[in-house]
Write a structure and sequence with these properties.
Strand content: 5-15%
Shape: flat
Number of helices: 45
Helix content: 55-70%
Strand order of the largest sheet: 1-3-4-5-2-6
Largest sheet: 6 strands, mixed
Structural class: mainly alpha
Distance between the termini: 72 Å
CATH architecture of one domain: 3-Layer(aba) Sandwich
Radius of gyration: 34 Å
Number of strands: 12
CATH superfamily of one domain: P-loop containing nucleotide triphosphate hydrolases
C-alpha cells in the first residue's frame, strides 16, 4: 500500500503539543537570549549538519534558555528545513506514544495493527510531510518519554529520516536508548549554564535595544543569578513599574529594585515554593528577611540536617569567612518571599534569630549593619539610637544616601547622638548634591547644643560644616573663620594635651580639615612641609590622622611635580590601611586620591585596575558607586586618547546621574564625554556635551575642577577652537606659578600640538620640575619639536607607548615622519611611518597628520605588507587573499613608495 494517503489531514494539524511547521524564522521575541549563546548555537548547528551525527542534546537547569536555543538553531538552518516539535506528555511513560499522539491520530487503520507497523507508519508519515526536505525533530522532555515513543524516535534517527534536538534538564532524563548514542558520539551534548555578567549585558541589549547602564547589568545579574528566564521576567516587571527607564538612549534604574507586585516572578517562585518542605520554607523566610545568617546560628535554630540538605539542593551558599555566613544562592527568591510576609511574621522571625538580644553595632561589619537595619525597618520596629547612627554611617559609606537619611531621621533631638546623626544627614545630602540642605542640617544644631558637645564630636561637626561650606561659593570664604573659632574653643581645654586625650584628637581633626580646605583651594605646594611633619610617627602617634594626612600628601606631591614620590607613597599607604580600618570612608578616600595620583603620572591603565574592585559590589551599593566608577574609567580612557573606549562607561554614568545626581559628578561626566566624542571626530555630539557642562551649576574642589576644565578645553582644541588653546596655555602658566607643575605640564602638552618655540621651551622648563616617564615624554616632545629632531620624537613616542598613551605616541610619530624626511633620514622616517600606520587603526582621529610624505597604508596594503614581510611570495599572497598576482604587485609598489623601502626584508618590523 502506498504511503501517500498518510499525508491526509496535513493541512489541519492539531493544535497543542507536537506542531509540524516549515522552518520559518523564529519570532524575534523568542530569540532574546540567543546573542549570549553564540558558542552553544554553533555547537548545536555543527551537530545538526555533521555527516555522522544524529543531532544534539541540550541540557541545563530550568530557565537557562534550552528551548530558545533549540528554536534558534532550527531557524538558523534556513527555510528549507522541515521542523517537527514534540513534547513528552505530562503523564510521561504511562501513555504509549505520548509525544507522538498527534501523528498516531493521522495514521490509517491499516497501520495500527502492531508496534512495528506503527513505527513504519510514523516514520513514513514524517518523510511524507518533509517532502524531500531535511527534517529536524525538537523533543522537549518536560516529562518522561515512554518506551514506545523512544523506539520510534530511535528508528527515525537510525534510518536517516530526521535529526533531533532533545531538550532535557539532564542527559539522564532522556530515554535509555539515547545514552549509547551519546556514548558513541552520535549525539552531542550541549550543556547550558546560567549567564555570566557579560552575557547578561548581551541579553539585556537584545531585550531593550539600547545601551544599558553597568549598574543595571550588575544589579539584575546578581538578583537572578544569570538565569535568562528570570532576567526577562524581571525586565518586564521593572518596565511596567516605571523603575526601568530610558535616559538619553541608555536604559538605567530610577531607584532600587523592589519586587513587590512582580506577578511573573511571583509565579515562578510560588511554583518552586510549593515543592519545598515546611522546614525549608521557614529557612527561606528567615534568610529573605535577614539576608544572611551565621552558619552556627542557623543550624542551632533549624538543625544541621535541614541546612545541609538545602545546600546540597543549591538553595543556599555558605561563604569562606570566619563566621561562615549563609545566604540564599538565588537572591530574587528572598526578594519575592519577603513581599509575602506580614509585619507580624517578620517580627516573629527577627525575634527567633536575635533571641531577645540586640546586636552590638561596634562588632558588626558595614554589610551586617545595612542588612540588620533594613530588616528592622521592614518590620516597622525601632532601631536603638546607636544602631540607627551606625546604620546611617554605613549607608553614607556605601553611597546609599536615601537610606542614610531614613536612619538618621530615627534619632530624636533629645538623644545624645542627635548631633552625630545631623552630621550623617549632611553627608547624605552632599552625596545627593544638595549642599543647601546639608548646611541646614548642620546649622540646625544650635549654639548651646554645639557648646554642650564633647570636644571630639564638636571637631567632627566643624569638619562636616567646613566640607559643606566649601560646596557653596557664597559661604566658602567663611571657612577660615570657622576654623579660627574652633581653635579658640580647643584652646580652653588646656595647653597641648597629648594624644589620645579628647582635646588632642579634636585638634588633629581640625588640622585635617584645614589641610582638606587648602587642597580644595589648590594650595598644594604651601602645605607640603606641614603635611610631611604630620605624617611623622614621632610627631603624632595618631595612626588614623597620619594616614589621612598622608593621603592628602600623596595628591599634593603628584600635583607639584613629584609624581614618583607620590606613587611610592601610594604603595606605602596601601599596605597600612588595615591599621585604620575603623575610620569610616578611609579606603574610599585613599582610592579616590590614588586614582588622581596615577592619572597625573600618566598611569591610566592602573587607574582602571584600581577602580575594578569597586565595580562589582552588592546591589545596594549601586547606582551611586557604579556611576563614580564608570566616570573614573571613562576619564582614564579619554586621557589615554581612547575616546571610543571612554564613551561606553561615560554615557552610562551620565544617564544614571541625570536621574540621581551625585555630588559634582554629572559635570565631570559631561566634560569627559565631550572630550571622548571630540577624540572620535564627532563634533556635533562633543559640542552638545560642552553645552551641557556650561549649563550645569556647581563648584567642586580644585582637583575635580581641573579635570573638568582640562576635558572641556582639550575637547575644544580637538574641535579647532583657538580660544581653547589659549585658555590651556593660560591655565598651564597659572598652575606653574602656583607650583602645580604636573597639572601645568599636562595642560601645556595638550596646548602645544601646534605650538611655538616659546611654548616648547616652557614645556621643557616645566618638565624639569617633574618626575617620571610622562615628564620625560613631555621633555622629548618639547626638544624634538623645537629642534626638529626626529630621533628625540621617536624616543618620546616609544616612551609614550610604554604608558599606552596612543594619541601622544601618534603625535610624536607624525612629527618624526616630517622631520626625518626633511633631514633625509629614511630609516627614521620608515620606522615612524610604520608605527603611525599601526596607530591609525586604534586612534580614530590623529592629533597631527604628517604634512610631508605619502599617506598612511590602507588596510589591504597593510595586510599584503605583513605577508610579504614574513617571506610570502606574490603568488602565495594572491591565493591567500583571492586576488590576482598583478593586484598584489600593485599594492606592494604602493607600500614600498609610502614606507620608503626597496625590498621585502625592509618590511619586517615596520607593519
Amino acid at each position: 500500500m502506498s504511503i501517500e494517503p498518510l499525508s491526509w489531514g496535513r493541512g489541519s494539524t492539531p493544535q497543542g503539543d507536537g506542531l509540524a511547521t516549515g522552518s520559518s524564522a523564529v519570532p524575534e521575541g523568542r530569540q532574546w537570549s540567543v546573542p549570549a549563546r553564540s558558542a552553544n548555537l554553533d555547537a548545536v548547528r555543527t551537530a545538526l549538519t555533521s555527516e555522522n551525527s544524529f543531532g544534539a542534546v541540550i541540557t541545563g537547569a530550568r530557565g537557562v534558555g534550552k528551548s530558545s536555543l533549540a528554536r534558534a538553531a532550527v531557524a538558523d538552518l534556513g527555510p528549507d528545513i522541515w521542523s517537527l516539535q514534540l513534547r513528552s506528555a505530562p503523564s510521561g511513560s504511562n501513555t504509549p506514544y505520548g509525544c507522538l499522539s498527534f501523528l498516531l491520530a493521522r495514521l490509517p487503520q491499516a497501520y495500527m495493527g502492531s508496534p512495528t507497523a506503527i513505527l513504519r507508519g510514523i516514520t513514513s508519515l514524517i518523510r511524507s510531510d518533509a517532502a524531500g526536505r531535511p527534517c529536524i525533530i525538537t523533543l522537549d522532555t518536560s516529562g518522561t518519554v515512554d518506551d514506545m515513543s523512544a523506539g520510534v524516535l530511535l528508528n527515525v534517527l537510525l534510518t536517516g529520516t530526521a535529526r533531533i534536538i532533545a531538550v532535557a534538564p539532564k542527559a539522564s532524563d532522556l530515554p535509555a536508548d539515547f545514552h549509547w548514542l551519546l556514548t558513541d558520539r552520535k549525539l552531542t551534548e550541549v550543556r547550558l549554564s546560567n549567564l555570566n555578567e557579560l552575557q547578561t549585558r548581551q541579553v539585556l541589549l537584545s531585550l531593550l535595544g539600547h545601551r544599558v547602564a553597568s549598574s543595571l547589568v550588575t544589579t539584575y545579574h546578581q538578583m537572578v543569578g544569570g538565569n535568562p528566564l528570570l532576567l526577562k521576567a524581571l525586565v518586564t516587571e521593572q518596565q511596567l513599574s516605571g523603575n526601568l527607564v530610558l535616559s538619553d538612549s541608555v536604559w538605567t534604574l530610577r531607584d532600587k529594585v523592589v519586587l513587590d507586585g512582580a506577578a511573573s516572578l511571583d509565579d515562578i517562585v510560588r511554583s518552586r515554593w510549593t515543592r519545598e518542605t515546611p522546614e525549608t520554607r521557614e529557612v527561606i523566610e528567615m534568610l529573605s528577611c535577614a539576608r544572611r545568617v551565621e552558619l552556627s546560628r542557623l543550624t542551632a535554630i533549624y538543625g544541621a540536617d535541614v541546612v545541609a540538605d538545602m545546600e546540597d539542593a543549591g538553595l543556599l551558599e555558605i561563604d569562606d569567612s570566619e563566621y561562615r555566613w549563609v545566604s540564599l544562592r538565588e537572591k530574587y527568591i528572598g526578594d519575592v518571599v519577603r513581599t509575602w510576609l506580614s509585619i507580624s511574621r517578620r517580627r516573629e522571625l527577627r525575634s527567633v534569630l536575635l533571641g531577645g538580644e540586640e546586636p552590638d553595632p561596634a562588632a558588626m561589619t558595614v554589610d551586617e549593619l545595612m542588612s540588620f537595619a533594613a530588616w528592622t525597618h521592614e518590620c516597622e520596629a525601632e532601631l536603638s539610637p546607636a544602631l540607627a547612627l551606625a546604620a546611617a554611617q554605613a549607608a553614607v559609606q556605601l553611597f546609599d544616601p536615601r537610606f542614610a537619611l531614613t536612619y538618621a531621621e530615627m534619632i530624636q533631638r533629645t538623644d545624645a547622638l542627635w548631633a552625630s546623626a545631623q552630621r550623617q544627614k549632611a553627608a547624605a545630602y552632599l552625596q545627593l548634591d544638595m549642599a543647601v540642605q546639608a548646611l541646614a542640617a548642620l546649622e540646625d544644631i544650635t549654639q548651646p547644643e554645639l557648646e554642650a558637645l564633647d570636644l571630639e564630636e564638636y571637631a567632627q561637626v566643624v569638619a562636616a560644616k567646613a566640607r559643606v561650606m566649601l560646596c557653596l561659593p557664597e559661604r566658602s570664604g567663611s571657612v577660615g573663620e570657622l576654623f579660627a573659632s574652633a581653635r579658640e574653643r580647643l584652646a580652653t581645654a588646656g595647653d597641648h594635651p597629648d594624644w589620645p586625650a579628647p582635646a588632642a584628637v579634636a585638634a588633629n581633626r581640625i588640622s585635617l580639615s584645614e589641610f582638606e580646605y587648602q587642597a580644595h583651594a589648590g594650595r598644594y605646594a604651601a602645605m607640603i612641609p606641614a603635611l610631611e611633619r604630620a605624617v611623622d610617627p614621632a610627631a603624632n602617634p595618631d595612626t588614623g590622622y597620619r594616614l589621612q594626612c598622608a593621603i592628602i600628601l600623596m595628591s599634593s606631591l603628584a600635583m607639584t611635580g613629584r609624581e614618583m614620590d607620590a606613587l611610592g607613597l601610594v604603595r606605602q599607604i596601601g599596605g597600612q590601611l588595615s591599621d585604620a580600618s575603623h575610620i569610616v570612608g578611609l579606603r574610599e578616600r585613599y582610592t579616590r586620591e590614588a586614582y588622581f595620583v596615577l592619572l597625573m603620572a600618566g598611569q591610566w591603565r592602573r587607574c582602571i585596575d584600581l577602580m575594578a574592585p569597586f565595580s562589582a559590589g552588592q546591589p545596594f551599593r549601586l547606582p551611586y558607586r557604579s556611576a563614580a566608577t564608570e566616570i573614573a574609567a571613562g576619564i582614564a580612557f579619554a586621557f589615554s586618547g581612547r575616546g571610543e573606549a571612554a564613551l561606553e562607561p561615560l554615557i552610562s554614568a551620565a544617564a544614571q546621574l541625570e536621574l540621581q545626581p551625585v555630588q559634582g559628578a554629572l559635570r565631570t561626566a559631561y566634560a569627559a564625554t565631550a572630550l571622548a566624542y571630540a577624540q572620535t571626530g564627532n563634533a556635533a555630539l562633543s559640542r552638545k556635551y560642552l553645552t551641557k557642562v556650561q549649563r550645569m551649576p556647581g563648584r567642586s574642589g580644585f582637583a575635580v575642577e581641573s579635570i573638568i576644565e582640562f576635558c572641556t578645553l582639550v575637547a575644544g582644541r580637538w574641535l579647532g577652537d583657538s580660544d581653547a588653546v589659549t585658555s590651556l596655555k593660560q591655565g598651564a602658566r597659572a598652575n606653574a606659578e602656583a607650583g602645580r607643575y604636573a597639572m601645568a605640564g599636562i595642560y601645556l602638552l595638550a596646548a602645544t600640538v601646534n605650538g611655538s618655540d616659546a611654548d616648547f621651551r616652557f614645556l621643557e622648563e616645566i618638565a624639569g620640575h617633574r618626575q617620571g616617564p610622562l615628564a620625560e615624554v613631555s621633555r622629548l616632545i618639547a626638544v624634538g619639536s623645537r629642534t626638529k629632531d626626529a630621533k628625540a620624537l621617536l624616543a618620546g613616542g616609544e616612551l609614550a607607548a610604554t604608558l599606552e598613551l596612543d594619541a601622544v605616541e601618534a603625535r610624536c610619530m607624525a612629527l618624526a615622519v616630517d622631520f626625518a624626511r626633511q633631514d633625509g633620514d629614511a630609516l627614521s622616517a620608515r620606522t615612524a611611518q610604520a608605527r603611525l600606520d599601526i596607530l591609525a587603526a586604534t586612534v580614530a582621529n590623529l592629533p597631527i597628520v604628517p604634512s610631508s610624505g605619502s599617506p598612511l597604508l590602507t588596510s589591504r596594503e597593510r595586510q599584503i605588507a605583513r605577508m610579504a614581510g614574513r617571506g610570502a611570495s606574490n603568488r602565495d599572497i594572491a591565493l591567500e587573499m583571492g586576488v590576482s598576482v598583478r593586484t598584489v604587485e600593485g599594492h606592494l609598489y604602493q607600500v614600498f613608495t609610502k614606507l620608503g623601502v626597496t625590498s621585502r626584508g625592509d618590511l619586517t618590523g615596520l607593519v
